[in-house]
Amino acid sequence: MPIAPDPTPWAFPHHSTWDPEDDLVALGADLEAGTLLTAYRLGLFPMPVTLEREELGWFSPVERGVLPLDGLRVSRSLRRSARTFEVRVDTAFDEVVAQCGSRERPDGWITPDFARAYGRLHRLGWAHSVEVWRGDRLAGGLYGVSIGGLFAGESMFHRERDASKVALLALVDLLRDEHADRRVLDVQWQTPHLASLGVVRRPRAEYLEQLAGCLDLPEPAGLRLDD
Questions:
Q1: In terms of domains, do 104 and 30 share one?
Q2: What is the mean pLDDT of residues 164-168?
Q3: Model confidence over 126-140: pLDDT tens digits?
Q4: What is the pLDDT of residue 227?
Q5: What is the residue range of 188's domain?
Q6: What count of other Cβ atoms lies within 10 Å of the Cβ of residue 191?
Protein backbone atom coordinates (compact mmCIF):
# COMPACT_ATOMS: atom_id res chain seq x y z
CA MET A 1 0.00 0.00 0.00
CA PRO A 2 1.18 3.57 -0.59
CA ILE A 3 2.46 5.36 2.50
CA ALA A 4 0.05 7.92 3.95
CA PRO A 5 1.72 11.32 4.44
CA ASP A 6 1.02 13.79 7.22
CA PRO A 7 -2.38 15.44 6.76
CA THR A 8 -2.54 18.86 5.19
CA PRO A 9 -3.06 21.89 7.46
CA TRP A 10 -4.97 23.63 4.65
CA ALA A 11 -8.72 23.66 4.06
CA PHE A 12 -9.88 23.88 0.45
CA PRO A 13 -13.18 25.60 -0.33
CA HIS A 14 -16.21 23.31 -0.61
CA HIS A 15 -17.21 22.59 -4.21
CA SER A 16 -20.58 24.23 -3.63
CA THR A 17 -18.75 27.58 -3.42
CA TRP A 18 -16.71 27.16 -6.62
CA ASP A 19 -17.38 29.65 -9.40
CA PRO A 20 -19.31 27.66 -12.07
CA GLU A 21 -17.60 29.61 -14.86
CA ASP A 22 -14.00 29.62 -13.61
CA ASP A 23 -11.50 26.74 -13.72
CA LEU A 24 -9.42 28.36 -10.97
CA VAL A 25 -10.80 27.46 -7.53
CA ALA A 26 -8.19 28.63 -5.01
CA LEU A 27 -4.76 30.19 -4.54
CA GLY A 28 -2.04 29.42 -2.04
CA ALA A 29 -1.39 26.39 0.21
CA ASP A 30 1.65 24.23 -0.56
CA LEU A 31 2.86 21.20 -2.50
CA GLU A 32 3.31 18.85 0.44
CA ALA A 33 2.18 15.28 -0.19
CA GLY A 34 -0.79 15.50 2.17
CA THR A 35 -1.98 18.68 0.47
CA LEU A 36 -1.69 17.20 -3.01
CA LEU A 37 -3.57 14.03 -2.12
CA THR A 38 -6.34 15.98 -0.41
CA ALA A 39 -6.68 18.17 -3.49
CA TYR A 40 -6.87 15.29 -5.95
CA ARG A 41 -9.51 13.58 -3.85
CA LEU A 42 -11.56 16.79 -4.06
CA GLY A 43 -11.16 17.06 -7.82
CA LEU A 44 -8.43 19.71 -7.78
CA PHE A 45 -4.92 19.85 -9.19
CA PRO A 46 -2.16 22.47 -8.86
CA MET A 47 -0.45 24.60 -11.46
CA PRO A 48 1.56 27.80 -11.17
CA VAL A 49 -0.59 30.78 -12.02
CA THR A 50 2.45 32.77 -13.16
CA LEU A 51 5.84 31.19 -13.70
CA GLU A 52 7.67 34.36 -12.64
CA ARG A 53 6.15 34.46 -9.13
CA GLU A 54 5.27 30.75 -9.02
CA GLU A 55 1.96 31.63 -7.37
CA LEU A 56 0.19 28.34 -6.70
CA GLY A 57 -3.27 27.87 -8.18
CA TRP A 58 -5.72 25.00 -7.66
CA PHE A 59 -7.86 24.12 -10.64
CA SER A 60 -11.02 22.15 -11.34
CA PRO A 61 -11.94 22.69 -14.99
CA VAL A 62 -15.56 23.54 -15.66
CA GLU A 63 -15.24 21.05 -18.53
CA ARG A 64 -12.90 18.27 -17.43
CA GLY A 65 -10.82 16.28 -19.87
CA VAL A 66 -11.38 12.55 -19.32
CA LEU A 67 -10.29 9.57 -21.41
CA PRO A 68 -12.85 6.74 -21.27
CA LEU A 69 -10.91 3.50 -21.06
CA ASP A 70 -12.91 2.07 -23.95
CA GLY A 71 -12.56 5.27 -25.97
CA LEU A 72 -8.85 5.45 -26.78
CA ARG A 73 -8.41 5.75 -30.55
CA VAL A 74 -5.60 3.47 -31.64
CA SER A 75 -4.61 3.40 -35.29
CA ARG A 76 -2.99 0.45 -36.99
CA SER A 77 0.21 2.45 -37.34
CA LEU A 78 0.25 3.14 -33.59
CA ARG A 79 -0.24 -0.57 -32.85
CA ARG A 80 2.70 -1.33 -35.13
CA SER A 81 4.79 1.38 -33.52
CA ALA A 82 3.99 0.09 -30.04
CA ARG A 83 5.53 -3.28 -30.90
CA THR A 84 8.89 -1.61 -31.54
CA PHE A 85 9.19 -0.19 -28.01
CA GLU A 86 9.53 -1.62 -24.51
CA VAL A 87 7.19 -0.26 -21.83
CA ARG A 88 8.30 -0.03 -18.20
CA VAL A 89 6.64 1.37 -15.09
CA ASP A 90 8.38 3.41 -12.38
CA THR A 91 11.96 2.77 -13.45
CA ALA A 92 12.83 6.39 -14.39
CA PHE A 93 10.23 8.58 -12.71
CA ASP A 94 12.49 11.58 -12.12
CA GLU A 95 13.76 11.53 -15.69
CA VAL A 96 10.21 11.44 -17.07
CA VAL A 97 9.27 14.45 -14.94
CA ALA A 98 12.44 16.27 -16.00
CA GLN A 99 11.66 15.70 -19.68
CA CYS A 100 8.03 16.77 -19.21
CA GLY A 101 9.29 19.93 -17.51
CA SER A 102 11.98 20.79 -20.04
CA ARG A 103 12.21 24.52 -20.60
CA GLU A 104 12.61 23.77 -24.30
CA ARG A 105 8.91 22.97 -24.41
CA PRO A 106 6.85 26.05 -25.29
CA ASP A 107 4.10 25.13 -22.81
CA GLY A 108 6.40 23.97 -20.02
CA TRP A 109 5.09 24.75 -16.53
CA ILE A 110 6.72 22.13 -14.30
CA THR A 111 8.94 24.13 -11.95
CA PRO A 112 11.66 22.58 -9.75
CA ASP A 113 9.25 22.79 -6.80
CA PHE A 114 6.68 20.75 -8.72
CA ALA A 115 9.30 18.20 -9.73
CA ARG A 116 10.40 17.75 -6.13
CA ALA A 117 6.81 17.52 -4.89
CA TYR A 118 5.83 14.77 -7.31
CA GLY A 119 9.10 12.99 -6.63
CA ARG A 120 8.06 12.83 -2.97
CA LEU A 121 4.65 11.46 -3.98
CA HIS A 122 6.40 8.85 -6.11
CA ARG A 123 8.61 7.71 -3.25
CA LEU A 124 5.49 7.37 -1.08
CA GLY A 125 3.85 5.22 -3.75
CA TRP A 126 1.21 7.65 -5.05
CA ALA A 127 2.79 8.93 -8.27
CA HIS A 128 3.86 6.73 -11.16
CA SER A 129 5.57 6.92 -14.52
CA VAL A 130 4.84 4.89 -17.62
CA GLU A 131 7.97 4.85 -19.74
CA VAL A 132 8.63 3.93 -23.35
CA TRP A 133 12.12 2.68 -24.10
CA ARG A 134 14.16 2.00 -27.22
CA GLY A 135 16.91 -0.14 -25.81
CA ASP A 136 18.62 1.99 -23.15
CA ARG A 137 17.12 5.24 -24.46
CA LEU A 138 14.03 6.74 -22.85
CA ALA A 139 11.95 7.58 -25.92
CA GLY A 140 8.88 8.96 -24.17
CA GLY A 141 6.57 8.63 -21.24
CA LEU A 142 4.01 10.11 -18.90
CA TYR A 143 3.45 10.50 -15.19
CA GLY A 144 0.52 11.03 -12.89
CA VAL A 145 -1.08 10.40 -9.53
CA SER A 146 -2.96 7.21 -8.68
CA ILE A 147 -5.51 7.19 -5.86
CA GLY A 148 -7.82 4.17 -5.78
CA GLY A 149 -9.64 4.18 -9.12
CA LEU A 150 -8.35 7.62 -10.16
CA PHE A 151 -5.33 8.10 -12.36
CA ALA A 152 -4.70 11.82 -12.72
CA GLY A 153 -2.40 12.28 -15.69
CA GLU A 154 -0.06 15.22 -15.25
CA SER A 155 2.11 15.41 -18.35
CA MET A 156 3.72 13.41 -21.14
CA PHE A 157 6.63 13.81 -23.54
CA HIS A 158 8.23 12.12 -26.51
CA ARG A 159 11.66 12.02 -28.08
CA GLU A 160 10.55 9.69 -30.86
CA ARG A 161 7.39 9.68 -32.92
CA ASP A 162 4.42 7.99 -31.22
CA ALA A 163 6.33 7.35 -27.97
CA SER A 164 3.98 9.40 -25.77
CA LYS A 165 0.96 7.80 -27.45
CA VAL A 166 2.44 4.37 -26.73
CA ALA A 167 2.79 5.36 -23.07
CA LEU A 168 -0.88 6.37 -22.99
CA LEU A 169 -1.88 3.12 -24.67
CA ALA A 170 0.10 1.19 -22.06
CA LEU A 171 -1.50 3.15 -19.22
CA VAL A 172 -5.00 2.40 -20.53
CA ASP A 173 -4.09 -1.30 -20.71
CA LEU A 174 -2.89 -1.12 -17.08
CA LEU A 175 -6.20 0.39 -15.98
CA ARG A 176 -8.37 -2.12 -17.81
CA ASP A 177 -9.27 -4.67 -15.16
CA GLU A 178 -12.44 -5.89 -13.45
CA HIS A 179 -13.01 -2.35 -12.14
CA ALA A 180 -12.44 -0.59 -15.47
CA ASP A 181 -16.03 0.65 -15.75
CA ARG A 182 -15.55 2.73 -12.58
CA ARG A 183 -11.97 3.89 -13.06
CA VAL A 184 -11.33 7.50 -14.08
CA LEU A 185 -8.44 8.56 -16.31
CA ASP A 186 -8.28 12.32 -15.83
CA VAL A 187 -6.20 14.44 -18.23
CA GLN A 188 -7.26 17.85 -16.86
CA TRP A 189 -8.24 19.65 -20.08
CA GLN A 190 -9.25 18.42 -23.51
CA THR A 191 -6.82 19.73 -26.13
CA PRO A 192 -7.19 19.16 -29.89
CA HIS A 193 -4.39 16.58 -29.72
CA LEU A 194 -5.98 14.72 -26.80
CA ALA A 195 -9.40 14.92 -28.45
CA SER A 196 -7.93 13.12 -31.47
CA LEU A 197 -6.98 10.28 -29.11
CA GLY A 198 -10.48 9.98 -27.65
CA VAL A 199 -10.45 12.41 -24.72
CA VAL A 200 -13.91 13.84 -24.01
CA ARG A 201 -15.21 16.68 -21.86
CA ARG A 202 -17.15 16.03 -18.68
CA PRO A 203 -19.07 18.78 -16.86
CA ARG A 204 -17.49 19.49 -13.49
CA ALA A 205 -20.43 18.09 -11.51
CA GLU A 206 -20.37 14.86 -13.51
CA TYR A 207 -16.63 14.50 -13.04
CA LEU A 208 -16.89 15.03 -9.28
CA GLU A 209 -19.61 12.38 -9.10
CA GLN A 210 -17.45 9.90 -11.02
CA LEU A 211 -14.50 10.75 -8.81
CA ALA A 212 -16.43 10.12 -5.61
CA GLY A 213 -17.49 6.73 -6.96
CA CYS A 214 -13.98 5.50 -7.78
CA LEU A 215 -11.73 6.49 -4.88
CA ASP A 216 -12.56 3.35 -2.87
CA LEU A 217 -11.33 1.02 -5.62
CA PRO A 218 -8.05 -0.89 -5.31
CA GLU A 219 -5.13 0.54 -7.24
CA PRO A 220 -4.48 -1.24 -10.56
CA ALA A 221 -2.29 -4.30 -10.10
CA GLY A 222 0.40 -2.96 -12.43
CA LEU A 223 0.90 0.12 -10.22
CA ARG A 224 0.95 -1.53 -6.81
CA LEU A 225 4.10 -1.34 -4.73
CA ASP A 226 4.05 -5.07 -3.96
CA ASP A 227 3.90 -6.11 -7.62
A1: no
A2: 97
A3: 999 999 999 999 999
A4: 44
A5: 65-223
A6: 13
